[in-house]
Design brief:
It holds the Pfam family TonB_dep_Rec_b-barrel. By secondary structure, this protein is mainly β. The protein is built from six helices and 38 strands.
């Protein structure tokens, strides 16, 4: 018998309410199976997802915020399969299962896949986030750019009924190794409430960093650095309920984070064991160019939901716009002495306009519950990478995409879950005639500029997914899935390094990623265990090859295979003490030449542990541990040096500590200590990247102190 529309409304609304409320606290193992996720475009129970999913709830976000306000750090600590934190504003090298993830805010893409500058993770302040959903493995559910999976920031909803509620938080972060100039300040505020049919939420944050110091007290190098960074985020969400079934929601996000410093770098060499660090220098030697970082990225989203469009059918319509300008550091490698340029600074500029229609129909056939998710996506993405001085490095790429999709889920006897889906995508990418840049690393090492004939490239791809999960026994719930993703990401990197004079001769083929995963979850009273193993292949992966004649890193297209596994243990030791531990391993090869992939894609083994003690409502203490293992897959060249992203990685360990004490219902104080034992180390990327300026050490012991007032 068909479910009534009233039942459907109750299911959707209660599911979202549970997600917003329950995920904001530490969940018991029993509650976990009822958590809902939205990664498949609708809300569904996590125990009906035949794939590996990580959910970071609001309490976990707030605990980590006491230690480090950077989302890269939070995700690295909490997500198995995500590469270690880079310790910078850039997530280059921070892959998810060896491939690039698509970063989203409430389902709206934040990454710039046509020219991936690896700045997508840092697009929103953690204070505006209710939870984070990470769905791993290639997927085409949201279109281009999700070859490694999806990182979806779910923003907060108005929680209060009637009266206005809010909070104000003030904190300072400083080096415990050397206090001088290291103290920064952070202010965040939020209000929310409801007036009849209107709900509202406003959040704002402003942060000024001091200098960041390593374990020896030296200032960290400035390339993608966070010293003297000024970060602003303003987010609003307005909702209007026409009635119990129809809702309109508007959201706006402004994010800016730029390094405004008067320091200069002393550049070292990782092959010689010399770190890059920053010092006070005369004005002519200071960091050149415009401040690096997002200059003022904006997102506007309008969403209309009808929970009962027809019997058993929900409809969601989305319109979104995005304007991104990410400014990179000034680089001497962008020099052209013939035209009087001794270097340059690039900007990734991207404008997106999109529309989506998603329908969700539920049908009940006796012992089978069927869900049909279907709809259309349309996207226009105009991306380029000019230089600040007016030169064009990557020409404007104008992409239009239209896709239709169908996703089905069958729950049989409440135990067996079968999912299957298909997506048909049609993309055209237009590029006008352009000329590649002449770039010189030295007077004798220059690239040769070419006039390249532009064209419109058409891509048509049909991708499939199928998965199965069996939930009969709590002690062993196995799952398996196969999913495909169609990826034309980083076409811009191919265009700017063109060695032929016709765009049709450049290897711009889309990459179809085939992802295979098996795993299981086990629940034994107070212990939850998760395991997943995976393998993904692609015919046209992209790696870098250094051309010693021109001094340019040229992209190489070749088939790739990536494989690995992940484990998680969630142990409620007592009603007041909880431990979550993870371990992940990933490896990959260029299968055409049977050589290992570099660290731009493949990270070293990673283990984490998070211990939380809450003896009462007033006090909470947390300790976190990060282990990054070694990875040594490459040999040095004839000069004894490692090149590109092939440097050897040695293991390191980091321990953090945080706590909060609630004095009254309104007031609480908090503290956090990053790198508690002042370990002197290079992050994994700093060890493996031999490019100039990346060899920057990790933070030494750094302390955060603050207070929050809630009203």
């Amino acid at each position: 018998m068909l479910k009534t529309s009233l039942s459907l409304i109750a299911l959707v609304i209660s599911s979202q309410s549970f997600a917003d409320d329950a995920l904001n606290k530490k969940l018991t193992a029993e509650e976990m199976e009822h958590v809902v996720v939205s990664g498949s475009r609708v809300f569904e129970s996590i125990d009906e997802v035949p794939a590996s999913v990580t959910i970071i709830n609001q309490q976990e976000i707030e605990e980590h915020l006491k230690v480090n306000p950077e989302l890269q750090s939070l995700l690295s600590q909490m997500v198995p399969g995500l590469a270690p934190d880079t310790g910078s504003s850039s997530n280059t090298g921070q892959s998810l299962r060896g491939r690039a993830p698509l970063v989203m805010i409430d389902g709206v893409p934040q990454s710039t896949p046509l020219r991936n500058g690896s700045l997508g993770i840092k697009t929103l302040d953690p204070s505006a986030i209710a939870r984070i959903e990470v769905i791993k493995g290639a997927t085409s559910i949201y279109g281009n750019g999700a070859s490694g999976g999806i990182i979806n920031y779910i923003t907060k909803q108005a929680q209060s009924e009637g009266k206005t509620e809010g909070e104000i938080s003030l904190s300072s972060r400083f080096s415990a190794v050397k206090l001088e100039e290291s103290a920064g300040a952070r202010l965040s505020a939020a209000i929310n409430g409801r007036a009849d049919k209107l709900s509202y939420l406003f959040t704002a944050s402003y942060e000024e960093n001091g200098v960041q110091r390593d374990a020896e007290g030296d200032i960290l190098g400035l390339q993608y650095g966070l010293s003297d960074a000024v970060t602003e985020n303003y987010f609003t969400k307005l909702g209007y309920d026409f009635d119990d079934q129809k809702q309109l929601q508007f959201s706006y996000n402004f994010f800016s984070s730029q390094q405004k410093t008067d320091l200069g770098d002393v550049v070292g060499n990782i092959n010689d064991g010399e770190k890059t660090y920053a010092i006070h220098v005369p004005k002519e030697l200071q960091k050149r160019g415009k401040p690096q970082g997002p200059e003022g990225n904006e997102n506007i989203t309008l969403k209309y939901t009808d929970y009962a469009l027809f019997d058993n059918t929900q409809m969601t319509l989305d319109l979104y716009m995005q304007d991104i300008e990410n400014i990179f550091f000034y680089s001497p490698n962008l020099a052209n002495p013939d035209e009087g340029y001794d270097g340059g600074q690039s900007i990734i500029s991207s404008e997106k306009k999109g529309a989506r229609a998603t329908f969700n129909t539920l049908v009940d056939f006796d012992n089978i519950e069927a869900t049909f998710i279907y709809g259309l996506d349309a996207l226009n993405d105009v991306t380029s990478q000019p230089l600040v001085d007016g030169r064009i490095w990557v020409p404007e790429m104008d992409m239009n995409s239209v896709a239709g999709f169908l996703q089905t889920k069958w729950v049989i006897n409440n135990d067996l879950v079968v999912k299957a889906g298909v997506r048909q995508e049609s993309i055209d990418l237009s590029v006008d005639d352009y000329e590649t840049l002449k770039l010189c690393r030295s007077a004798t090492q220059c690239s040769v500029p070419l006039n390249v004939k532009g064209d419109t490239i058409d891509y048509d791809a049909t991708t499939y997914n199928v998965g199965i999960k069996y939930n009969l026994l709590a002690a062993f719930s196995p799952f398996a899935n196969y999913s495909q993703g169609s990826d034309i990401s980083d076409i811009g990197r191919l265009l700017r390094a063109a060695t032929v004079n016709d765009i049709g001769l450049i290897q711009t083929e889309a990459s179809i990623i085939d992802n295979y995963e098996i795993g299981f979850t086990s629940q034994f009273d107070d212990v939850r265990f998760e395991f997943a193993a995976y393998r993904s292949t692609s015919e046209f992966g992209t790696t870098n090859s250094f051309n010693e004649t021109t001094g340019v890193y040229e992209p190489v297209r070749a088939p790739q295979e990536i494989w690995g596994y992940e484990t998680l243990v969630d142990y409620m030791i007592s009603p007041t003490l909880k431990l979550v531990a993870t371990y992940s391993y990933v490896e990959g090869k260029n299968t055409e030449d049977d050589i290992y992939l570099g660290s731009r894609q493949i990270s070293p083994p990673k283990g984490t542990a998070n211990l939380n003690w809450t003896p009462n409502d007033e006090l909470s203490l947390s300790a976190s541990y990060l282990y990054v293992g070694s990875r040594k897959r490459f040999e040095p060249n004839a000069d004894g040096d490692y090149v590109g992203d092939q440097g050897p990685i040695s293991s390191y360990n980091i321990v953090n500590l945080s706590g909060r004490y609630k004095f009254t219902h309104n007031w609480q104080a908090f503290m956090g200590v990053e790198n508690l034992f002042n370990n002197d180390y290079y992050p994994a990327r700093a060890q493996s990247y031999t490019y100039g300026g990346y060899n920057i050490k990790g933070l030494g012991t750094t302390v955060t102190l603050g207070a929050t007032y809630r009203f």
